[in-house]
Amino acid sequence: MRARGLVKRFGDFEAVRGIDVEVRRGEAFGFLGPNGAGKSSTMRMIACVSPRSAGELRVLDMDPDVDGPRIRARLGVVPQQDNLDTELTVRQNLQVYGRYFGLSRAHVRARAAELMDFAQLTERADDEVEPLSGGMKRRLTIARSLVNDPELLLLDEPTTGLDPQARHLLWDRLFRLKQTGVTLIVTTHYMDEAEQLCDRLVVMDGGRIVAEGSPAELIRRYSSREVVELRFPPGGQDGAVHRVRDLAERVEVLPDRLLLYADDGEGALATAHQRGVQPVATLVRRSTLEDVFLRLTGRSLVD
């Protein structure tokens, strides 16, 4: 997938403001950003369900404006909300969906069996979808998106609302897919998910790309190796700021704590204690993609 100067407008509103992106075959690529950043609009253009307003877009070496049906035949799409046929069984959901692609009944039956095994749903094959757990429904949605053996899989918030066990099982299944050569494009609000799944990613804000690279590259570029969290009673951090300002590359003041971005977190914490700083709780942790995300897009809530 390649985009150059890609734009999406809705009337006078420009949701995607001239982005350049290239996704290599066989990699897992992420779109991160707050609500309204332009992620979903970009994904809909890639999925050939929303025409671009300007710029260049090639998906599987084809132009969506001309080759939309051919592209969609080689795509798999996992929407943010499961849209399964809840009154059908697990097996029927796969078989009926496979028929939409013109696949033979014999092929669809065999493919459904493979996908139920892949999604660990074989024992529930003849159960209706409605009573399944959220994790099972999500696995079935992903399995259904693979019925046509897609070369490119688009996943919009694939694990939202799932418990940790279900999330890790889905990550394992997506990793296996990538190993078979399927290209993955993912949007997610979970920074740990992006670190686990994505070879490369972009951070979008206000319809533009504000950073691009691998998770490790972005952490090196926009954060420090470690973060020291010093927690105080409300307002108690104000008197400590001047004592720790020189101990870190950057100090962030929050309502209940100070964040010190430093390469040697333990050393910074020890010096802070020596200077009489007395937080009610401390934590030294490695810097994460979430630190990068919040630095680039801000901490203000976006509706």
From TrEMBL:
Endoplasmic reticulum found in the keyword field: no
Annotated membrane topology: Peripheral membrane protein
Gene Ontology biological process terms from the UniProt entry: response to antibiotic
Keywords carried by this UniProt record: Antibiotic resistance, ATP-binding, Cell membrane, Membrane, Nucleotide-binding, Translocase, Transport
Superkingdom of origin: Bacteria
Example of a GO MF term: ATP hydrolysis activity
GO cellular component, one term: plasma membrane
Annotated signal peptide: none
Keyword Amino-acid biosynthesis: no
Localization per Swiss-Prot or TrEMBL: Cell membrane
Pfam families: ABC_tran (PF00005)
Main location: membrane
Ranges for domain ABC transporter: 1-231
PANTHER family for the chain: ABC TRANSPORTER ATP-BINDING PROTEIN, ABC TRANSPORTER ATP-BINDING PROTEIN NATA
Family that this chain belongs to: Belongs to the ABC transporter superfamily.
Protein's name according to its UniProt entry: ABC transporter
Gene source species: Longimycelium tulufanense
